[in-house]
What we know:
Layout: E1 2-3, E2 11-12, H1 41-69, H2 75-103, H3 111-124, H4 134-164, H5 174-189, H6 193-200, H7 205-232, H8 242-254, H9 261-269, H10 284-293, H11 295-301
Antiparallel strand pairs: 1-2
Helix pairs in contact: 1-2, 1-3, 1-4, 1-7, 2-5, 2-6, 4-5, 4-6, 4-7, 5-10
Amino acid sequence: MKLLPKLGRRVVTEPGEVALHARNVRFDWSKTAPVWMKDEPVASHVLNALSMLLPEGERMFLVTFGEALELVKDEKLREAMIGFIGQESMHAESHNGALEEVLTAHGIDVEPYVRQTEYIFRKTLGPRDDLTTEAARQQHLVERLGFIATLEHFFAFLGDWILNADLERFDTDPQMLDLFRWHGAEEVEHRMVAHDVAEYFSVGYVRRCALMLVVFPIFIALLVRGTKYLAHQDPNLPNHRYPMLILRIFAAMWRGALPGIPSLLYSALTVFKPAYTPEPVGSSAQAIAYLAQSPAARMMAS
Protein backbone atom coordinates (compact mmCIF):
# COMPACT_ATOMS: atom_id res chain seq x y z
CA MET A 1 0.00 0.00 0.00
CA LYS A 2 1.13 3.56 -0.66
CA LEU A 3 0.00 6.98 0.46
CA LEU A 4 -1.38 9.17 -2.30
CA PRO A 5 0.03 12.70 -2.41
CA LYS A 6 -2.36 15.65 -2.91
CA LEU A 7 -5.36 13.41 -2.35
CA GLY A 8 -5.97 13.64 1.35
CA ARG A 9 -3.13 11.28 2.30
CA ARG A 10 -5.48 8.32 2.32
CA VAL A 11 -4.32 4.72 2.07
CA VAL A 12 -5.50 2.71 -0.91
CA THR A 13 -5.02 -0.84 -2.11
CA GLU A 14 -3.59 -1.80 -5.46
CA PRO A 15 -6.18 -2.31 -8.24
CA GLY A 16 -4.53 -5.37 -9.78
CA GLU A 17 -4.25 -5.59 -13.56
CA VAL A 18 -5.64 -2.64 -15.48
CA ALA A 19 -6.47 -2.27 -19.17
CA LEU A 20 -3.98 0.16 -20.67
CA HIS A 21 -5.22 2.92 -22.92
CA ALA A 22 -3.85 6.18 -24.28
CA ARG A 23 -5.23 9.34 -22.70
CA ASN A 24 -5.74 12.48 -24.73
CA VAL A 25 -4.09 15.45 -23.07
CA ARG A 26 -3.69 19.14 -23.85
CA PHE A 27 -1.14 21.56 -22.42
CA ASP A 28 -1.18 25.35 -22.52
CA TRP A 29 2.47 26.40 -22.86
CA SER A 30 1.79 30.14 -23.28
CA LYS A 31 3.06 31.00 -19.78
CA THR A 32 5.82 28.38 -19.44
CA ALA A 33 9.49 29.41 -19.53
CA PRO A 34 12.43 27.06 -20.18
CA VAL A 35 13.51 27.46 -16.54
CA TRP A 36 10.20 26.14 -15.25
CA MET A 37 11.45 25.49 -11.72
CA LYS A 38 12.41 29.08 -10.99
CA ASP A 39 14.37 28.20 -7.86
CA GLU A 40 16.13 25.26 -9.58
CA PRO A 41 17.41 26.24 -13.04
CA VAL A 42 19.80 23.29 -13.37
CA ALA A 43 17.10 20.78 -12.40
CA SER A 44 14.88 22.42 -15.04
CA HIS A 45 17.60 21.87 -17.64
CA VAL A 46 18.08 18.22 -16.60
CA LEU A 47 14.38 17.47 -17.08
CA ASN A 48 14.28 19.53 -20.28
CA ALA A 49 17.17 17.36 -21.51
CA LEU A 50 14.99 14.35 -20.76
CA SER A 51 12.27 15.93 -22.89
CA MET A 52 14.79 16.29 -25.75
CA LEU A 53 15.77 12.63 -25.37
CA LEU A 54 12.32 11.09 -24.97
CA PRO A 55 10.49 11.63 -28.29
CA GLU A 56 13.00 9.74 -30.45
CA GLY A 57 13.42 7.04 -27.81
CA GLU A 58 9.70 6.48 -27.61
CA ARG A 59 9.37 6.40 -31.39
CA MET A 60 11.97 3.63 -31.35
CA PHE A 61 9.80 1.83 -28.79
CA LEU A 62 6.83 2.08 -31.15
CA VAL A 63 8.72 0.71 -34.15
CA THR A 64 10.22 -2.16 -32.16
CA PHE A 65 6.97 -3.14 -30.46
CA GLY A 66 5.23 -2.94 -33.83
CA GLU A 67 7.67 -5.53 -35.16
CA ALA A 68 7.35 -7.73 -32.08
CA LEU A 69 3.55 -7.57 -32.01
CA GLU A 70 3.33 -9.68 -35.16
CA LEU A 71 5.21 -12.49 -33.39
CA VAL A 72 3.26 -12.51 -30.11
CA LYS A 73 0.56 -15.17 -29.85
CA ASP A 74 -0.48 -14.42 -26.25
CA GLU A 75 -3.64 -12.29 -26.61
CA LYS A 76 -3.38 -10.79 -23.14
CA LEU A 77 0.19 -9.64 -23.80
CA ARG A 78 -0.81 -8.33 -27.22
CA GLU A 79 -3.53 -6.17 -25.65
CA ALA A 80 -1.04 -4.79 -23.13
CA MET A 81 1.43 -4.04 -25.94
CA ILE A 82 -1.22 -2.19 -27.94
CA GLY A 83 -2.09 -0.09 -24.88
CA PHE A 84 1.63 0.57 -24.29
CA ILE A 85 2.09 1.67 -27.92
CA GLY A 86 -0.82 4.11 -27.62
CA GLN A 87 0.53 5.65 -24.42
CA GLU A 88 4.10 5.94 -25.69
CA SER A 89 2.89 7.61 -28.89
CA MET A 90 1.09 10.26 -26.85
CA HIS A 91 4.19 10.75 -24.68
CA ALA A 92 6.38 11.41 -27.72
CA GLU A 93 3.86 13.86 -29.19
CA SER A 94 3.42 15.76 -25.91
CA HIS A 95 7.14 16.14 -25.16
CA ASN A 96 7.75 17.21 -28.75
CA GLY A 97 5.12 19.90 -28.26
CA ALA A 98 6.91 21.11 -25.14
CA LEU A 99 10.19 21.28 -27.06
CA GLU A 100 8.64 23.40 -29.81
CA GLU A 101 6.46 25.67 -27.69
CA VAL A 102 8.69 26.15 -24.65
CA LEU A 103 12.32 25.70 -25.70
CA THR A 104 12.30 26.61 -29.41
CA ALA A 105 9.77 29.39 -28.88
CA HIS A 106 12.17 30.98 -26.36
CA GLY A 107 15.11 30.93 -28.76
CA ILE A 108 16.73 27.64 -27.71
CA ASP A 109 17.97 25.62 -30.67
CA VAL A 110 17.30 21.98 -29.80
CA GLU A 111 18.01 20.58 -33.28
CA PRO A 112 21.69 19.60 -32.87
CA TYR A 113 20.95 17.51 -29.78
CA VAL A 114 17.75 16.07 -31.26
CA ARG A 115 19.67 15.01 -34.39
CA GLN A 116 22.08 13.10 -32.16
CA THR A 117 19.19 11.29 -30.48
CA GLU A 118 17.77 10.49 -33.93
CA TYR A 119 21.04 8.85 -34.90
CA ILE A 120 21.18 6.81 -31.69
CA PHE A 121 17.61 5.57 -31.78
CA ARG A 122 17.07 5.25 -35.54
CA LYS A 123 20.46 4.06 -36.80
CA THR A 124 21.94 2.28 -33.79
CA LEU A 125 18.77 0.89 -32.22
CA GLY A 126 16.41 0.89 -35.16
CA PRO A 127 15.73 -1.83 -37.75
CA ARG A 128 18.76 -2.88 -39.79
CA ASP A 129 18.67 -3.60 -43.50
CA ASP A 130 22.06 -5.32 -43.50
CA LEU A 131 20.83 -8.38 -41.59
CA THR A 132 20.24 -11.02 -44.26
CA THR A 133 19.05 -14.01 -42.23
CA GLU A 134 15.87 -14.45 -40.22
CA ALA A 135 17.90 -15.60 -37.19
CA ALA A 136 20.00 -12.41 -37.25
CA ARG A 137 16.93 -10.19 -37.53
CA GLN A 138 15.27 -12.06 -34.66
CA GLN A 139 18.37 -11.67 -32.50
CA HIS A 140 18.53 -7.93 -33.22
CA LEU A 141 14.85 -7.59 -32.31
CA VAL A 142 15.40 -9.41 -29.01
CA GLU A 143 18.33 -7.10 -28.18
CA ARG A 144 16.18 -4.04 -28.85
CA LEU A 145 13.34 -5.40 -26.71
CA GLY A 146 15.80 -5.99 -23.87
CA PHE A 147 17.10 -2.46 -24.27
CA ILE A 148 13.56 -1.09 -24.06
CA ALA A 149 12.82 -3.13 -20.93
CA THR A 150 15.94 -1.69 -19.29
CA LEU A 151 14.97 1.88 -20.14
CA GLU A 152 11.40 1.29 -19.02
CA HIS A 153 12.73 0.22 -15.62
CA PHE A 154 14.29 3.67 -15.24
CA PHE A 155 11.21 5.45 -16.57
CA ALA A 156 9.02 3.67 -14.01
CA PHE A 157 11.50 4.66 -11.28
CA LEU A 158 11.48 8.29 -12.47
CA GLY A 159 7.69 8.23 -12.75
CA ASP A 160 7.34 7.05 -9.16
CA TRP A 161 9.84 9.67 -8.04
CA ILE A 162 8.12 12.61 -9.71
CA LEU A 163 4.70 11.56 -8.43
CA ASN A 164 6.04 11.77 -4.88
CA ALA A 165 8.60 14.60 -5.09
CA ASP A 166 7.51 17.93 -3.62
CA LEU A 167 8.58 20.02 -6.62
CA GLU A 168 5.97 22.73 -6.05
CA ARG A 169 8.23 24.26 -3.40
CA PHE A 170 10.72 25.29 -6.10
CA ASP A 171 8.22 27.73 -7.70
CA THR A 172 7.32 25.28 -10.42
CA ASP A 173 5.26 25.86 -13.54
CA PRO A 174 2.10 23.73 -13.13
CA GLN A 175 1.83 22.82 -16.83
CA MET A 176 5.32 21.35 -17.09
CA LEU A 177 4.95 19.60 -13.76
CA ASP A 178 1.71 18.04 -14.98
CA LEU A 179 3.42 16.91 -18.20
CA PHE A 180 6.04 14.99 -16.24
CA ARG A 181 3.60 13.66 -13.65
CA TRP A 182 1.07 12.53 -16.26
CA HIS A 183 3.87 10.84 -18.19
CA GLY A 184 5.36 9.39 -15.01
CA ALA A 185 2.02 8.03 -13.87
CA GLU A 186 1.54 6.18 -17.15
CA GLU A 187 5.10 4.81 -16.90
CA VAL A 188 4.19 3.37 -13.51
CA GLU A 189 0.88 2.10 -14.85
CA HIS A 190 2.50 0.15 -17.72
CA ARG A 191 5.77 -0.74 -15.93
CA MET A 192 5.27 -4.49 -16.42
CA VAL A 193 4.70 -4.50 -20.18
CA ALA A 194 8.25 -4.15 -21.55
CA HIS A 195 9.50 -6.62 -18.93
CA ASP A 196 6.80 -9.14 -19.86
CA VAL A 197 7.63 -8.73 -23.56
CA ALA A 198 11.33 -9.26 -22.86
CA GLU A 199 10.45 -12.40 -20.90
CA TYR A 200 8.26 -13.63 -23.74
CA PHE A 201 11.18 -13.25 -26.15
CA SER A 202 13.58 -14.97 -23.72
CA VAL A 203 15.76 -12.03 -22.71
CA GLY A 204 17.39 -13.98 -19.90
CA TYR A 205 19.16 -13.03 -16.69
CA VAL A 206 22.67 -12.61 -18.16
CA ARG A 207 21.49 -10.43 -21.03
CA ARG A 208 19.31 -8.35 -18.71
CA CYS A 209 22.27 -7.64 -16.40
CA ALA A 210 24.61 -6.90 -19.31
CA LEU A 211 22.10 -4.45 -20.78
CA MET A 212 21.81 -2.61 -17.46
CA LEU A 213 25.60 -2.26 -17.30
CA VAL A 214 25.52 -0.65 -20.74
CA VAL A 215 22.28 1.34 -20.57
CA PHE A 216 22.72 2.97 -17.15
CA PRO A 217 25.93 4.91 -17.92
CA ILE A 218 24.78 5.81 -21.44
CA PHE A 219 21.44 7.11 -20.15
CA ILE A 220 23.14 9.27 -17.49
CA ALA A 221 25.77 10.51 -19.98
CA LEU A 222 23.10 11.56 -22.49
CA LEU A 223 21.17 13.43 -19.80
CA VAL A 224 24.28 15.26 -18.59
CA ARG A 225 25.28 16.09 -22.18
CA GLY A 226 21.80 17.47 -22.86
CA THR A 227 21.89 19.47 -19.64
CA LYS A 228 25.25 21.00 -20.62
CA TYR A 229 23.87 21.83 -24.06
CA LEU A 230 20.93 23.70 -22.50
CA ALA A 231 23.04 25.36 -19.80
CA HIS A 232 25.35 26.69 -22.53
CA GLN A 233 22.36 28.63 -23.91
CA ASP A 234 21.28 29.95 -20.49
CA PRO A 235 22.73 33.46 -19.93
CA ASN A 236 22.17 33.10 -16.18
CA LEU A 237 24.53 30.10 -15.98
CA PRO A 238 27.78 31.52 -17.41
CA ASN A 239 29.97 28.74 -15.97
CA HIS A 240 28.65 25.66 -17.74
CA ARG A 241 31.83 23.60 -17.76
CA TYR A 242 31.33 20.00 -16.71
CA PRO A 243 32.89 20.16 -13.19
CA MET A 244 30.71 23.09 -12.13
CA LEU A 245 27.66 21.65 -13.87
CA ILE A 246 28.05 18.30 -12.10
CA LEU A 247 28.33 20.09 -8.76
CA ARG A 248 25.13 22.00 -9.52
CA ILE A 249 23.35 18.78 -10.45
CA PHE A 250 24.45 17.15 -7.18
CA ALA A 251 23.24 20.23 -5.29
CA ALA A 252 19.82 19.97 -6.98
CA MET A 253 19.69 16.29 -6.01
CA TRP A 254 20.54 17.15 -2.40
CA ARG A 255 17.70 19.70 -2.31
CA GLY A 256 15.25 17.13 -3.70
CA ALA A 257 14.74 18.75 -7.11
CA LEU A 258 16.18 15.63 -8.81
CA PRO A 259 16.37 11.98 -7.78
CA GLY A 260 19.56 11.17 -5.90
CA ILE A 261 22.43 9.01 -7.13
CA PRO A 262 22.01 6.39 -4.32
CA SER A 263 18.37 5.79 -5.22
CA LEU A 264 19.23 5.62 -8.95
CA LEU A 265 22.00 3.11 -8.30
CA TYR A 266 19.82 1.01 -6.00
CA SER A 267 17.10 0.96 -8.63
CA ALA A 268 19.59 -0.14 -11.30
CA LEU A 269 20.98 -2.88 -9.08
CA THR A 270 17.56 -4.42 -8.45
CA VAL A 271 17.58 -5.89 -11.97
CA PHE A 272 20.48 -8.12 -10.90
CA LYS A 273 18.15 -10.08 -8.63
CA PRO A 274 17.41 -13.44 -10.29
CA ALA A 275 13.70 -13.05 -9.56
CA TYR A 276 13.60 -9.38 -10.64
CA THR A 277 10.30 -7.84 -11.65
CA PRO A 278 9.42 -4.12 -11.98
CA GLU A 279 6.10 -4.68 -10.18
CA PRO A 280 7.30 -3.13 -6.84
CA VAL A 281 8.39 0.07 -8.62
CA GLY A 282 5.67 2.55 -7.76
CA SER A 283 1.97 2.09 -7.13
CA SER A 284 -0.65 1.53 -9.81
CA ALA A 285 -3.31 2.94 -7.48
CA GLN A 286 -1.35 6.15 -7.01
CA ALA A 287 -0.68 6.43 -10.74
CA ILE A 288 -4.33 5.93 -11.69
CA ALA A 289 -5.45 8.39 -9.02
CA TYR A 290 -3.14 11.06 -10.44
CA LEU A 291 -4.25 10.36 -14.01
CA ALA A 292 -7.85 10.89 -12.90
CA GLN A 293 -7.00 14.38 -11.66
CA SER A 294 -4.31 15.44 -14.17
CA PRO A 295 -5.21 18.95 -15.40
CA ALA A 296 -4.08 18.13 -18.96
CA ALA A 297 -6.29 15.03 -19.10
CA ARG A 298 -9.23 16.82 -17.48
CA MET A 299 -8.89 19.67 -20.00
CA MET A 300 -9.48 17.24 -22.86
CA ALA A 301 -12.37 15.58 -21.01
CA SER A 302 -14.18 18.88 -20.40
